[in-house]
Amino acid sequence: MRTLTGLVFGLALVAASLTGAARAEVKMSGSFVADATCPATQAIKSGRNPGNIATDAGQSYELLAGNKGAPTHYLIRVPGADPERRWVKVDCGHVSGGSASGESAAPVPADREKPAAPASGKPEYVLALSWQPAFCETRPGKTECKAQTAAGFEATHFTLHGLWPQPNGNFYCQVAAADKANDNPARWQDLPPVELEPNTRSELDRVMPGTASALDRHEWIKHGTCYGKSQQAYFSDALNLTRAVNASSVRDLFTQNIGRDLTSDQIRAAFDRAFGPGAGKRVRVSCVKDPSSGRRLVGELTLGLTGPIGPNASLSELLLASVPTNNAGCPKGIGDPIAFQ
Q1: What CATH number is associated with residue 89?
Q2: Which residues contact 50 (CB under 8 A, 6 or more apart)?
Q3: Could you give the maximum distance between any two Cα atoms of the chain, in Å?
Q4: Do the Cβ atoms of 298 and 336 come closer than 8 Å?
Q5: Residue 34's pLDDT is what?
Q6: 229 or 14, which is more confident?
Q7: Domain shared by 81 and 129, yes or no
Q8: Residue 284: beta bridge partners?
Q9: Per-residue model confidence as pLDDT tens digits over 93-140
Q10: CATH label of the domain that carries residue 327
Q11: Which residue, 79, 202, 240, 338, could crosslink 155 as a Cys pair with Cβ 3.0–4.6 Å?
């Protein structure tokens, strides 16, 4: 009898422990946007990380939960990882849409959130521009990174990552299930090709080096299908906006400081000079960590835009019509030179 009583008591303790563990995970909704490359682990305490999975700066992930009411870690879904459910530290990025806005330091659990009143001036689009040498430090095996040269466009210009209709989570509009299933980097070549006019294709291959890895197919399937225009119009608009940044003093700031630290304040001030006072407050800086040296590098700029985008759209007007953000992102990083350091 004493043995049976002890067994029942032990089972009760296990059940209580499991219940407590379940309660510790607070369900959340929305998207987690990585501001840096960070480990995405299967477990928080042990740091176990099958596949050595890391977030990509500027990439958004489905937000599933926090590890507690005031979370130190978020549970996100990383497509293509095994398992897909991974934990990341909260300071690796910011939450957008759903349970919290990008400005909130402590998102509220999904089951306690209240509908937010509509706010004017919210970004309708995010333009993501990469500093390709920094990206390639973290992905040296990529086809486009193996091919980079000091004379290449990407050595001295911003490259196009994507143009993303908002709110975050506005993905895969009327996309076939098979194409959505193929949307992970290992299978982007299996996605339908992007059909463009010859001149647009030529410019895109130069301004978006990732087309060598079928990045254009991924960007169209995930984001472009929600843009409401053709493939030709979507990529033409994105190229026009990228061209405006590359023709500005923002690019000059980077080319004149290659190999040196750049601060988010400097970058935002350059946007103010190029596109009007206040434009910089619509810009967020993301950094990546060079795995070989530990250097912190400026990896990407994301620009919040509001208003109709077309062939004659003004980047200045689109920036100033959008809502400012107090979160400048990464405070300081190096403007990485081309070639692996």
Answers
A1: 2.30.30
A2: 42, 81, 82, 83
A3: 84
A4: yes
A5: 78
A6: 229
A7: no
A8: 302
A9: 776 543 433 333 334 343 333 333 334 457 999 999 999 999 999 999
A10: 3.90.730.10
A11: 338
On whether the CB atoms of residues 194 and 141 are closer than 8 A, the answer is no
Instruction: Give yes or no: residues 148 and 263 share one domain.
Output: yes
Please check whether residues 132 and 279 belong to one and the same domain. yes
User: Residue 299: enclosing H or E segment and its boundaries?
Assistant: strand 296-305
Q: Kindly report the CA angle at 312 between 311 and 313, in degrees rounded to 5?
A: 100
Global pTM value: 0.70
Each residue's pLDDT tens digit, 259-295: 999 999 999 999 999 999 999 999 999 999 999 899 9
- For residue 167, say if its preceding peptide bond is cis, omega within 30 degrees of 0: yes
9: part of which helix (H) or strand (E)? helix 2-24
Rounded Cα distance, 180 and 230, in Å: 19
CA 341/CA 337 separation, integer angstroms? 8
Question: HSE of 63 in the Cβ direction (CA atoms, 13 Å)?
Answer: 35
Amino acid occupying residue 175? V
What mean pLDDT, rounded, does the chain reach? 85
Angle of CA points 172, 175, 179, to nearest 5°: 100
Indicate the range of 23-27, 86-90, 93-97, 164-168 predicted with least confidence. 93-97
| Separation CA 92–CA 98 (nearest Å) | 18
Give the DSSP per-residue string, 135-184: HHHH-TTSHHHHT--TTSGGGTS-EEEEEEESSTT---TT--HHHHHT-S
149 CB burial (10 A radius; 0-12, 13-18, 19+): exposed
Number of folded domains that form the chain: 2
Q: Which domain holds residue 282?
A: 125-334
Asked whether residue 15 is domain-assigned, the answer is no
Tell the residue number behind the tokens 């920036």, with chain if given.
Answer: 319
Q: How far apart are CA 98 and CA 109, in angstroms?
A: 10
Q: Are 95 and 105 in contact (CB under 8 A)?
A: no
